Hints:
Blueprint: H1 8-16, E1 22-37, E2 55-70, E3 73-83, E4 104-117, E5 120-127, E6 146-153, E7 159-169, E8 193-206, E9 212-221, E10 225-236, E11 239-250, E12 260-269, E13 275-284, E14 325-336, E15 340-351, E16 360-371, E17 374-385, E18 394-404
Antiparallel strand pairs: 1-2, 1-18, 2-3, 3-4, 4-5, 5-6, 6-7, 7-8, 8-9, 9-10, 10-11, 11-12, 12-13, 13-14, 14-15, 15-16, 16-17, 17-18
Amino acid sequence: MRVTKISLLASLLLYTSSFAVDNIEVSGAGKFFYGTVDGSPDGTSRPNLFNKEGAFAQFGIDMGIAADLGAGFKGKIAGTGLATANMGGNIVNAPWATGMMGSQVWLSEVYLNKNVLDKTAVTLGRQSLDTPFAFTELWNIAANTFDAVLVENTDLSDTTLIGAYIDKGNGVNGFATVNPAIADSGKLKNPFKKFYEGAYVVGAKNKSFNGTELQAWFYELKNTAKSYWIQGDTEFSGITLGAQAAVLNLDNTLDSSDNSKAYAAKIGYTAIENLTLSAAVSQTDKDGSANFQIANLATGGSGGAQSKLYTEAWWNFGYVGKAGTTAYNVTALYTVPEIVDLGFFYTDVDQRAANGDNDMREYTLTAAKSFGSLDTSLAYVYSKANDYNDAKYYNNIQVYLTYKF
């Protein structure tokens, strides 16, 4: 007897082929991201700005097709492609998303969605997620996604209940963000790997109080960790307030006795037209894990992983959630109507010497403008960190071009 095994994604593709497709929507975006720095990891060989030694860039394209499939089903198939177009070694020294030069392509989203009950929706397949400890990071030219089952219920008034099982993801630790879809030999490979040993997620969001959202989350990563996240945000009379508490309890790891905790608070002001101001502070416990931090577990949970803490930096991720760290953030956003969107971001991170002394300070200025379907953005980052560039300040200039279609 011959037994044939097919993947979850292949099963979904075969299953959807039997539906009567309607309301087809095609969307996509072409991108070019470029950056240049005059700093280096050890600070001994500092490149000049705009020289290839300190430059990184990549072309990207996202293409998706969404449709009503009949019988209450909806579906989407989307792909992501990346290319350096012979820039490597000539104009730049590194790409943006995967840490690998050359061209590659993969399926970034393949899912089915259906309301199985009046107020209960199920999404099955490869998809983006937005939860505090496992989420799709959107800062890079390519976003990480997940093979997961997501259930959302809204039977309770002003409340959304969430349940999910995460099987795989293509996130990796650090600047790369996503696994490459090709091997060094140039052969195609599956960039989606097991998400730890599988993870269960349960969450609830409530908006019963006007202008207020409360949320609570629980995660169980098989044989790795249990984690909790509680958050409340409110707005009244132009004042915004927020509070966060997070716990990461480690199981069966080298440092299982070290559980990580974090607390954060935020205050903001929005009463002036076109202006948004905010300030935040966070604190992690000194006895937290040295290998895991309060950050996105989908991209490693350690150095380089983005955090949902209010104090997260604009560019230098992987610091605010480390053990024994006090962090501050100040953000100012101002829109000049029909001209430009401006941003100023300041982050200061102070880590205890006993926990590694990974201090970091960052100043960022941004300017963004849309020209029809073309979104443009320019960023200037001036920063220093004890573990980079010999703890000296360095410059980072970035250009973002995105054409949506």
